[in-house]
Design goal:
The complex is a heterodimer of chains A (386) and B (131). Chain A has 386 residues and is of the alpha/beta class. In chain A, 37% of the residues lie in helices and 19% in strands. Chain A has 14 helices and eleven strands. In chain A, helix 1 crosses helix 3, helix 4 packs across helix 14 and helix 7 crosses helix 11. Chain B is mainly beta. Chain B has two domains: 48 residues; 83 residues, OB fold (Dihydrolipoamide Acetyltransferase, E2P) (Beta Barrel). Chain B starts with a helix and ends with a strand. Classes of the chains: A alpha/beta (386), B mainly beta (131).
């Protein structure tokens, strides 16, 4: 297998974008990524689109060809990839595989979700859990993560304030991101006093409902060197793992087994240990998720993530900066797009073009995306090489 | 939910029918065709015990539309005697009575009323085991 490089990135603003359709969103992000890749885009020979549920959100399936058509790229192969909220990450993974295998020189991977067209979002998102044995009983997605939060608090003494710190930090970062849905700061008190969603989680523990799209252009080394204008960013690892669909089937409800497995494989591919990562974009769909993910990625021991968040270690400028983009919490979470948007942010960070939210001297970045309560997980590691 | 789907699930929802792997003894709920622990494909029928304890719980304040009139309500992960875990509501109690490891038992209750097929759907909920 040969090395793969990211040569172009693009994304829409994230938010309630009522004036934009699903196809508008995706094409806008894809065109931005193609423009960023310079003339290499002319050699685009395949595309993968991550999308969780265009069928439930806008009543449209089969979006691969629809988006290739509106991108003006007929007849290249166009395939939709679905792993719930990790769909964007899985699209990037499959595009990497195609380039690594030597089948294609230049491939587009993206993600899109149009969530504000009026569909019942709570029910649509619940389809990422086991419909017959979880959702049937009335548990929602915030509810499932609340079950994890309660277990984590009970076992490790993780506090409500520590959870709130995750949201406060991600809003602080998001305030520096012009593409973010909620580019403003919030306080711990605001989190603790926000309305109840699923005890112990409150509204400001939850990522929002968002429209948006993101896209990246992946290429072989030869194509990347021809494209030329940006510092080279190598995909050092592209890994995926699977866990049980139902949260209750896990031996340990506080542990994200699939994230651990995907991370282990990613570190093996990249030949690094977790402490070598300079900047991370992780799947903070709820505040508790970011804490559990930190533990699963090996950034800290089980049960120690809360104190680290409280101490500010995960802030830009801290020892292990997490979610400089604002994360899903503040940047927004168009579910199928989020995994691809993480790669977009890492590329900006590794190129040194992240402006006010730049992590100093970032050379190695890690992106972790997960679907459901962690049943699907992708981990990518990017490395700036020039 | 359509009635064929609902009918198919009655053995689990009404009677807690499970499958016990003849290879390693692991009990699967719902039953499976292959054991995820030992890959054995032979199972014998078994019924889950109704008694267990709460592993973790939440109070749902923002429900899906078909549970609109019930919120707030409690949902828990319950570990039954023998180790099988499932997700269900905990009813007939206040949130202040809930704690990790509190003993519960499963009872037969109405779960939701379907808007598409107009059928009342039943299943298991947990109640606190009181002395």
């Amino acid at each position: 297998m040969r090395d793969v490089y990211v040569i172009g990135v693009g994304m829409t603003r994230f938010g309630e974008l009522w004036e934009s359709s699903l196809r508008d969103l995706f094409v806008e992000a894809a065109l931005a990524a193609l423009d960023d890749a310079g003339n290499a885009g002319e050699h685009l020979s395949s595309m993968y689109v991550g999308c969780m549920s265009s069928g439930l959100f806008v009543g449209q399936e089969h979006i691969g060809p629809q988006l290739a058509d509106y991108l003006g790229r007929i007849p290249i192969p166009a395939t939709r990839v679905e792993t719930a909220c990790a769909s964007g990450g899985a699209a990037v993974l499959h595009a990497c595989l195609e380039v690594a295998a030597g089948v294609s020189e230049v491939v587009l991977a993206g993600g899109v979700e149009k969530m504000t067209d009026g569909a019942d979002v709570t029910s649509a998102l619940a389809t990422a859990a086991d419909q017959e044995y979880e959702a049937y009983h009335g548990v929602t997605f915030p509810g499932l993560y609340a079950l994890m939060a309660r277990a984590h608090m009970h076992r490790y003494g993780t506090t409500r304030e520590q959870l709130a710190r995750v949201a406060v930090k991600n809003h602080k970062h998001g305030a520096l991101n012009p593409k973010a849905q909620y580019p403003f700061e919030i306080t711990v008190e605001q989190v603790l006093n926000s309305s109840r969603v699923a005890d112990p989680l409150r509204l400001l523990d939850c990522s929002p409902v968002t429209d948006g799209a993101a896209a990246v252009i992946l290429a072989s080394e030869e194509a990347a060197r021809r494209a030329g204008s940006h510092p080279l960013i190598r995909v050092a690892a592209s890994a995926q793992a699977t866990g049980t669909i139902a949260l209750h089937s896990r031996a340990d409800i506080t542990r994200l087994d699939a994230v651990e497995q995907a991370a282990k494989e990613a570190y093996r591919q990249a030949g690094i240990t977790p402490d070598k990562v300079d900047v991370s974009e992780v799947h903070d769909c709820f505040t508790i998720a970011e804490l559990c993910v930190m533990e699963a990625l090996g950034y800290t021991e089980a049960g120690k993530s809360g104190p680290l968040a409280e101490a500010g270690e995960t802030n830009i400028g801290g020892r292990m900066p997490i979610n400089p983009s604002g994360g899903l919490k503040a940047k927004g979470h168009p579910v199928g797009a989020s995994g691809a948007a993480q790669i977009v942010e890492l590329v900006h960070q590794l190129r040194g073009e992240a402006d006010g939210r730049q992590v100093e001297n970032a050379r190695i970045g890690l992106a972790q995306s997960m679907g459901g309560t962690g049943a699907s997980c992708t981990v990518h590691i990017l490395e700036g090489v020039s | 939910m359509r009635s064929p789907q609902y009918t198919r699930e009655i053995p689990q929802r009404y009677r807690l029918e499970a499958g016990k792997c003849t290879g390693c003894g692991k009990v699967h709920f719902p039953p499976r065709l292959i054991c995820d622990a030992c890959r054995c494909r032979e199972f014998e029928d078994t019924t889950l015990p109704r008694e267990g304890k709460i592993l973790t719980w939440t109070v749902i304040y923002v429900p899906p539309p078909n549970f609109d009139l019930e919120a707030p309500y409690v949902v828990a992960i319950v570990e039954l005697e023998g180790g099988v875990r499932l997700t269900c509501q905990v009813v007939d109690c206040g949130p202040d009575e809930l704690a990790v490891d509190v003993p519960v038992e499963l009872v037969f209750r109405r779960i939701q009323e379907d808007s598409q097929a107009d059928i009342i759907q039943y299943g298991y909920k947990a109640v606190l085991k009181r002395e």
